[in-house]
Amino acid sequence: MSYNHDHENEVNYFGKTNFRNQMTKFGIKTDDRRRHVYVIGKTGMGKTTLLENFILSDIYAGHGCCYVDPHGDTAEKLINYIPSWRLNDVVYFNPADMDYPVGFNILETVSERHKHLVASGMMGVFQKIWENMWSSR
Predict the structure, then answer these.
(1) Can you tell me the distance from the alpha carbon of 25 to that of 16, in angstroms, rounded to the nearest whole number?
(2) Which pLDDT tens digit goes with each residue over 43-96?
(3) Residue by residue, what is the 3-state secondary structure of 57-112?
(4) Engineered SS bond to 69: which of 75, 117, 120, 128, CB 3.0-4.6 Å?
(5) Looking at the DSSP assignment, which residues form a beta bridge with residue 15?
């Protein structure tokens, strides 16, 4: 992993292109990334590496970020690259870690008026996840 960020222009560089017979750095503006990025490609093409570099760029620039890692290996790898001056800003949430569980109350900030809607939505999610286990218990 490498860190390549232009703070002045807020550009994340992640490649080089041949522009008018001259190799030029190529990247995406941070502001454009805030409007969604769709990263597609075959296995081994560098999607995860690109996202890792975006995350590191955000961390070093002092920005907040969130990385959801369904496998856990990339999140573990990223932790090793967090600079010491950003460690107090990190929340590492691993729902599979039974030694250090993190509580999350989805209704905590919801108004009384809307709690039934959130609860209904969560029940719908649970029904989809445990479709074959659902009963009137």
Answers:
(1) 4
(2) 999 999 999 989 988 898 888 888 888 777 888 899 999 999 999 998 888 878
(3) HHHHCCCCCCCCCCCCHHHHHHHCCCCHHHHHHCCCCCCCCCCCCCCCCCCCCCCC
(4) 75
(5) 26
φ/ψ of 13, rounded to 5, equals -85, 135
Please, how many CA atoms are within 13 Å of residue 119, restricted to the half-sphere of its CB?
8
| Backbone region of residue 72 per phi and psi (left: phi > 0; alpha: psi in -120 to 50; beta: other values) | left
Query: Rounded to whole angstroms, how far apart are CA atoms 36 and 17?
Result: 23
DSSP state of 113: T
Cα–Cα distance measured from residue 78 to residue 56, given in angstroms and rounded to the nearest whole number:
8
Is the pLDDT reported for residue 4 higher than 60? no
Task: Give CA–CA dist 114/112, Å, rounded.
Answer: 5
How far is residue 27's CA from residue 34's CA, in Å, rounded to a whole number? Answer: 14
Phi, psi of 82 (to 5 degrees): -75, 125
